[in-house]
Each structure stands twice: as C-alpha cells, then as structure tokens.
Amino acid sequence: MPFHKMEGVGNDFVLIEADAASGRDLSELAQRLCHRPFGIGADGLLVVERGVRTPVRMRMFNPDGTEDFCGNGLRCAARFAYEQGYASATEFAIETLGGQVVPVQIHLREGSVDAITTVLPPPRFHPHDIPALAEGELIEDFPITVAGHPLRIACVNTGTTHTVIFGATLPDDALFHAVSPRLETHPMFPERTSVLWAVVASRKEIRVRIWERGVGETLGCGSGAAAVGVLAYRAGWTEPEVTVVSAGGRLKVKPTEDGIALVGQANTLFKGVFYF
C-alpha cells in the first residue's frame, strides 16, 4: 500500500488515497499503520479521495481506530491534494467528518507551498454541542476534580471536543499524566475529550501542552489551538488574532465571520510502501 508520511506542527500522519484502501476496514487499518513499533507510526491516518461536493474529501482516524475531525490533518491533506492535482486552484474546499466543508487557501512562495489557511467551523459552546453533561449554556471556569486535583476548565467544540485548563504555568509530567487521560475519559464527556493545558503568555501568544483524544500526548493540535484561541479571546485575555505555541511549532488563530481561521505549515516527510 503506497503512503505519504506528513506532519503539521509536529502532529504526524500517514496519508493514503482511498483507492489504495479499497475493501479494508479503515478503523483497523489506522490501528495497524499508526502503531509506532509495528506499523509506520503516526498520530493519525488520513484517507484522501476526490469529493463530490468538493474537490477533496478527507477522513481521519486516530491510532485507536476512532474517526475524528483534525485541523492539522486538513492542512496536510490540502497540501497533498494541491500538489497531486486534485485541485488546480490555490483556493478550494475539503469535505471532512460529518459532511463539514472546510475552505482552504494555499499560500505559495516562489512556486512552492509556504503556508496553508483553513477555516474551521464556527465554535460551539453549548454543552449539548460539545458534547458535555453539564447544566447551563456555557462551560467556562467550571469546577471539577480529577485524580484528586481541583481544576477549572473551559470547553468548546471546534470540529471536535476540547477541554482547556488555563493556568500560570504548564503542568509537569506528573500532573499532566495523572490528570489528562482521566479527564479525556471523564463521565462528563460521553464522546471523550481532548485536553489542552494553556498559559496566556501575552495578548498575542498562548503556550500549550496537548493530550489528544484517542492519541495521548502530541506535539500539536490544530482544532485544539483554535479552541484555546477562541476561549482566551472570549475571556478578554488576548487579541482576536493570537499565536498558539506548542512543542511542535506555531499556529495563528483568528475568528472570522465563517468560523476560525487557522494558519500554519504542512510538510511531506517521506513516502513509501507498506507491506501487509
């Protein structure tokens, strides 16, 4: 099976074309290909094909086989699709999980892809839409105790479920690994949640440490960066446009009339063939 290995701010993916996986269970395939010792190794599997409603359709599967929405994966799929001729223009759209259509703009420098803008869907704050089992219209500065640690959390859906813990410093390994997986699977979140620990460094920059639903700790998360950016702006701590810095790199986040603009890079690392 031919594949491309790609990354966006350290979030790494195995990308395959849908025809190559014809007849295979994509959930099982993701678990096989994303396994780091016995597969190719990745934070997720991207399955790309030509769309009907849009030039490109992308499906993303976590290493545990669950299907999900993925902001960084969208940029990788966008670069692949543009360079492989799925789309002839630098502006097109990608259909993803649940039929969501994401506008894409490829930014070129001297004929090569330099950066990519995607417009993620409008953020959803109501607990029913996150989804989260909580009363009220919003989950902001919400008290919860996890693994014996009292926390204040904020939640939003930016294509997928995110829970953000704002603090003065990023957590050490002990706190991060004690709380993050338990918060991911907390009964409050029927579909689980990604967990982002965030520090507002200035009105234009936020630093994060990331635990992704279905993956574990990752170096980057596009939809998570969008979640952190919109929640910090709603709280009045930052400007509308903010840079979110993770261990894997920097993403620019800005609310728009149509959703959340996310600007960053996507790179092809290598390509090869996987033998079953």
Describe the structure in your own words.
β11 (161-166), α3 (173-184) and β12 form a beta-alpha-beta unit. The longest helix is centred in the N-terminal third of the chain and has 13 residues, at 71-83. The chain has two domains: 2-118 and 266-273, Roll (Diaminopimelate Epimerase, Chain A, domain 1); 142-257, Diaminopimelate Epimerase, Chain A, domain 1 (Roll). It has helices spanning 26-34, 71-83, 173-184, 222-234, and strands at residues 2-8, 11-17, 44-50, 56-61, 67-68, 91-95, 101-109, 112-120, 142-146, 149-157, 161-166, 194-202, 205-212, 216-218, 242-246, 249-255, 260-264, 267-273. The chain is an alpha+beta fold. The mean pLDDT is 97. It has an 18-stranded mixed β-sheet that branches.
Topology at a glance:
Layout: E1 2-8, E2 11-17, H1 26-34, E3 44-50, E4 56-61, E5 67-68, H2 71-83, E6 91-95, E7 101-109, E8 112-120, E9 142-146, E10 149-157, E11 161-166, H3 173-184, E12 194-202, E13 205-212, E14 216-218, H4 222-234, E15 242-246, E16 249-255, E17 260-264, E18 267-273
